[in-house]
Amino acid sequence: MRILLLASAFNSLTQRVQVELRDRGHTVATEVVHADHEVRDAVGRHRPELVVAPMLKTAVPEDVWTRHTCLIVHPGPPGDRGPSSLDWAIHEDRDTWGVTVLQADGQMDAGDVWASTSFPVACVGKSDLYRGEVSDAAMDALALAVERFESGTYRPSPQKGHTVHVRPVLRQDARRIDWASGTDGILRALRAADSQPGVLDDRLPGGPWYLHGGHPEDRLRGGPGEVVATRAEAVCVATGDGAVWIPQLRRPRRSGEPASVKLPATVALGRSLPDVPEMHADPETSAARRTFADVRYEEHDDVGFVRFSFPGGAMSTAQCRRVLSAYRHACRRPTRVVVLGGGRDFFSNGIHLGVIEAASDPARESWANIQAMNDLVEAVLTTTDRLVVAALGGNAAAGGAMLAIAADDVWCRSGTVLNPHYRLMGLPGSEYWTYSLPRRVGPDRAEALMRAAEPVGVSAAQRMGLVDRIVTASPSDFGRRVTAMAAELAADPETHQRITDKKRVRARDEAAKPLVAYRDEELARMRRTFFDPGAPYHALRAAFVRKQPSRPVAPSMRAPSPTI
């Protein structure tokens, strides 16, 4: 079938729907639209048999939905209506929630139901939940709805049999934090607001601030609302019965100005940061502790696990260095396998465009950040005394995708989407992609991937050699599955031979062309881009992090969305 996707942003769910429907044999076009005339124009140009809206913030015009079946993906159960459905589910501490695929009509979220499914509400941030359980449920329901439509015999059911619950926008007055209250309630408010809109708060120094993300702390204490410590650029704020870690802050937007940039909390606070201790996290901090650590090291059954998780998957210079330090620690341990990642959300999206944008000299910060990413990838590529596995529980893009394919094995959770390219940000690329990508998919396909700048689903990625194993697991179960698979790999008698072969191949490749040559060639092009004030990269970066419209580097390309 010819299917047209209409979306307000080319976000994670829209990308997943595109790649999975194509993998099912459909011809899929995607258009980012913001106004009625753009919807009409897209439908007129593509003449679809079916219209699907994975994430559309505006209503479909009547003259479109009366002539075409338009399926809307709503992140709520049948009968639920409103733009803050998922926020309310977390705010109200629901155990289960749902996704409904309904037909567009004259009232938002009120159309006939084509399919619906439920999912468990994991104790994670809204954006993580959206990219995980919501995305899985949405894809299951949408696949069923498309099959039903294609059959030509199915008739959707009216919502009259369901209890209708119209939910208003969850505004800041309902999200407001009372720091003297309990930690669990505060964390729930923070989870319901991440990554947008954040929780507006005026208690932190230099406020007001939007708070993004939250993690519990089981030992530190202080007066409610008091900043008591820092760690890895996050701040620890005392509550009525404990404390929480806030990893990111953002200034409220001033009238007439573009959106402000989310930044690591201590970076955002700057001189407003009080004189509090830096509580360095031991990489081997027990996973059983309720505390914040964006990088951890664990060891089980001859396997070392370097686990890391950063908001939005972006890795600043400092964050790259923390991962590299943990990785070097892992390589000093007597293990046969090292696993990178293994968490449930983003693996990595490469350099941190927000930190770069806010830097006093974005060109120099870009250069420092790309060097730090290259140092990490180089450490993975030059590890020849054990096997390295990249375990992707969530999406990866740009330098993060190249970090993954630098490993010996790439294991991806089903539903993961890869964007192994840089072009949409106006960059030629780095992180040894000119070595690693052709090594996996061949030189012609490597060039095609970089040129096309399209998302790749895991099934297609496995067929072309980007991915070695697809792990069918829920987001919450992915880590356990990876742990068991890695133990099996470490115990496999063939692993010793694989390590021997790996060392030989690395020596052969180094003799043919040293890794430093790939790095120097790539970074020479990157440096010219970074330090050229007129390079498109600077405008594209600013538009991306400040959520402004931008002109893509090629007319056919859609810029990825910084939203969930």
Number of domains: 3
Approximately what portion of the residues adopt beta-strand conformation? 15-25%
Largest sheet: 6 strands, mixed
Decide which structural class fits the backbone: alpha/beta
CATH architecture assignment of the largest domain = Alpha-Beta Complex
CATH superfamily of the largest domain: 2-enoyl-CoA Hydratase, Chain A, domain 1
| Count of distinct strands | 25
Highest CATH level, the class of the largest domain:
Alpha Beta
Mean pLDDT equals 95
CATH topology of the largest domain: 2-enoyl-CoA Hydratase, Chain A, domain 1
What gap, in angstroms, lies between the N and C termini? 28 Å
Task: Please list the strands of the largest sheet in the order they lie side by side.
Answer: 2-1-3-4-6-7
Shape: globular
Summed up, the helix count is: 19
* Low-confidence residue ranges: none
Task: Using the CA coordinates, give the radius of gyration.
Answer: 23 Å
Question: What oligomeric state is this?
Answer: single chain
- Give the helix level as a range of percent: 25-40%
Overview features:
564 residues; alpha/beta; Rossmann fold; Methionyl-tRNA Fmet Formyltransferase, Chain A, domain 2; 2-enoyl-CoA Hydratase, Chain A, domain 1; 3 domains; six-stranded mixed sheet; 25 strands; Formyl_transferase-like_C_sf; ClpP/crotonase-like_dom_sf; Formyl_transf_N_sf; Hydrogenase maturation protein
